[in-house]
Amino acid sequence: MRRALAAALLAACAIGPLHADPAAWRVVSRDGGELWLLGSMHYLKDSDYPLPASIDRLFAAAEALAMELDLDDLDPAAEQAALLGAALLPPGVSLADVLGEAEHARAAEQAAALGVDLALLERFEPWLVAITLLDRGMSRLGYRADRGVERYLVGKAQEAGKEIVGLETTAEQIAVFDALPPEEQRGLLEQTLQELARPASAIEHLAELWRAGELETLARELEGEFEGFPELYRALVVGRNARWVPALEGFLREGRRYLVVVGALHLVGRDSVVDLLERRGYTVERIPDEAEASQSRASTP
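Now predict its structure.
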């Protein structure tokens, strides 16, 4: 589920400057607590390693790690059962009934191209079909969730004995999709089929843009993918941002340093986590990349 949600937010992007670091922000509270907000790539290739050194520096200085989900405390079998149970269509209703002939044929064709028999998904709602196909598509391109930023940092936190916490539960993530009305679920599947038709270079551009710290450009590209699906954007991005902010404020009141790692789209633009924290009176500062920091040190008398 965690991987599927990440895949559902991918889109084509232009390459940014390669000298920069992934974008991150610093939030400080009067209680002495700090948050370092890092935009993530949930899927990466082996060739994307080593990751930028700035990620290791942020982790080393943090006392705890927060992510969308606590990946250190998941039961894959229970997750799978909950996912399939939530997505099951009512008795007597099939995916073909929900989609209509033309859209169902298109989905079946794309599924076959990915080695998936759509007949195996006929009893499930369109949102599950969408994330299943996109997850398979990412895997076909060589992008793996176990090589993503979160998994990398979970491994480091386990080795260092640092606390790992989640901003939401698997049940809450599933509920976001399951609560989508039928037209938005069909929209998610349509959007997914469009993304699957893009060339592999689109995802490679996205990884370069993330590594370059060009989250503003990345966000504009991703938001463009939702232009025809405003309710979907509010559910997958805006609503979740709002639910995360109280937990982030709780972290700040603890007086500890948290590294908070979430998808890039959650940190840029109106109603982003950064925007919502600023509206609540917090000062949120972009952390300069190493090249900028070195230049600033060199120019200081």
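The beta strands are 24-28, 34-40, 64-67, 163-166, 257-263, 284-286.
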